[in-house]
């Protein structure tokens, strides 16, 4: 059966799903279900579609622009972690007990507070109560649908290659809620853009997204950094520039993310020998997976010219896996990504976010339900 016909059969289920989500949202809109506001700046980063839109890199971008002036906390539910409840990350945490993305953030920014909690309200209250240090701003990861919390800024991400306006509700499409959910966003960012967007495409996207005057629109792309050893204690060479990859160098790309298309496209600029071993998003690696990696290495035509490249998120899970073969450790590198705003939009974005945090610095007052902060 063709995928188009399968999709047609899924539309009735999408309709029922959409009705259920719409009722829930209306209960919040009509104040039957209550959103809670805390007297501390809260910035939510999320989307209305399942799959990767770049939430973690954009969260890291926010950390970088705020960390010199404010004490930051990141709160996530800790997807696929093996623990429950509230947990504040420390130097002994790993991807198994806090989740791969929170662990990635804690490892890159050890000076900030990173916590996980399925109950975001409870997690915020625990972070708010911290005294050493007191938190100035909380970044909520993937919480756009968590309406029990009233964030001061809601940032909605949408993938350039699959805009929410061109998608359908689950299960026929990837939308978690109807397109009207975008109206809750203060900021919409079109992510994963090509570095140079044609004016005709730029204007078409602006028109199709259908934003209101109170909403700001930005465009961002990913920039790739130097290849970084995942196990630096056994890798003597240190970081490698992507340009150092030889055209005949064999690359084993190891990914467990929503989409690896962007990384593949980037690596093709430097080498023509790319072997791909992909898994589902947030995949927990097993002994069988390690065996498969070793077999791929053994099948390589030129063992001396072999390198394993993975994402930072996958690296967060791999370092938590016990007894990885030394051969894998020696050849395993993570490819970091950073967010870059197009058309010099970073100045406006940075100013908007920092002004909001400055205006709404925390104090000892808890506002409670249905209060508002100045955005």
UniProtKB/TrEMBL annotation:
Question: Can you say what this protein is called?
Answer: tetraacyldisaccharide 4'-kinase
MF terms (GO), sorted A to Z: ATP binding; lipid-A 4'-kinase activity
User: Which NCBIfam families does UniProt cross-reference here?
Assistant: lpxK
- Keyword field: ATP-binding, Kinase, Lipid A biosynthesis, Lipid biosynthesis, Lipid metabolism, Nucleotide-binding, Transferase
Q: Pfam families under this entry?
A: LpxK (PF02606)
Report if keyword ATP-binding is assigned: yes
Task: Indicate whether Transmembrane helix appears among the record's keywords.
Answer: no
- Give the GO terms filed under biological process for this record: lipid A biosynthetic process; lipopolysaccharide core region biosynthetic process
Which organism is this entry from? Answer: termite gut metagenome
Query: What GO cellular component entries does it have?
Result: plasma membrane
Which InterPro entries does its entry note?
LpxK, P-loop_NTPase
Q: What is its EC number?
A: 2.7.1.130
Q: In which pathway does it act?
A: Glycolipid biosynthesis; lipid IV(A) biosynthesis; lipid IV(A) from (3R)-3-hydroxytetradecanoyl-[acyl-carrier-protein] and UDP-N-acetyl-alpha-D-glucosamine: step 6/6
């Amino acid at each position: 059966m063709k995928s188009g016909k399968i999709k047609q059969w899924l539309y009735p289920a999408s309709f029922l799903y959409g009705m259920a989500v719409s009722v829930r949202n209306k209960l919040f809109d009509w104040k039957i279900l209550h959103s809670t506001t805390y007297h501390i700046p809260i910035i939510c980063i999320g989307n209305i579609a399942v799959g990767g839109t770049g939430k973690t890199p954009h969260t890291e971008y926010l950390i970088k622009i705020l960390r010199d002036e404010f004490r930051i906390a990141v709160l996530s539910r800790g997807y696929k972690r093996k623990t429950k409840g509230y947990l504040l990350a420390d130097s002994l945490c790993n991807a198994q007990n806090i989740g791969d993305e929170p662990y990635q953030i804690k490892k890159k920014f050890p000076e900030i507070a990173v916590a996980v909690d399925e109950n975001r309200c409870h997690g915020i209250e625990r972070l708010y109560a911290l005294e050493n240090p007191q938190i100035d701003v909380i970044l909520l990861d993937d919480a756009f649908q968590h309406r029990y919390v009233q964030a001061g800024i809601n940032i909605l991400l949408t993938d350039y290659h699959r805009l929410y306006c061109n998608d359908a509700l689950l299960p026929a499409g990837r939308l978690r809620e109807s397109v009207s959910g975008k109206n809750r966003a203060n900021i919409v960012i079109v992510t994963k853009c090509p570095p140079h967007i044609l004016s005709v495409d730029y204007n078409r996207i602006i028109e199709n997204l259908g934003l209101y005057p109170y909403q700001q629109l930005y465009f961002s792309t990913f920039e790739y950094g130097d290849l970084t050893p995942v196990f630096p204690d056994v890798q003597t060479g240190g970081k490698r520039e992507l340009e150092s990859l030889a055209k005949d160098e064999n690359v084993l790309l190891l990914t467990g993310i929503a989409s690896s298309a962007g990384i593949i496209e980037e690596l093709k600029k430097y080498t023509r020998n790319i072997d791909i071993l992909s898994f589902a998003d947030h995949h927990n690696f097993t002994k069988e997976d390690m065996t498969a990696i070793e077999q791929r290495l053994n099948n390589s035509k030129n063992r001396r010219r072999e390198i394993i490249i993975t994402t930072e998120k996958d690296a967060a899970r791999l370092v938590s896996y016990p007894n990885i073969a030394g051969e894998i450790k020696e050849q395993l590198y993570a490819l970091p990504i950073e967010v870059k705003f197009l058309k010099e939009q970073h100045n406006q974005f940075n100013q908007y976010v920092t002004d909001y945090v400055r205006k709404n610095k925390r104090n000892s007052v808890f506002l409670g339900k249905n209060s508002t902060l100045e955005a």
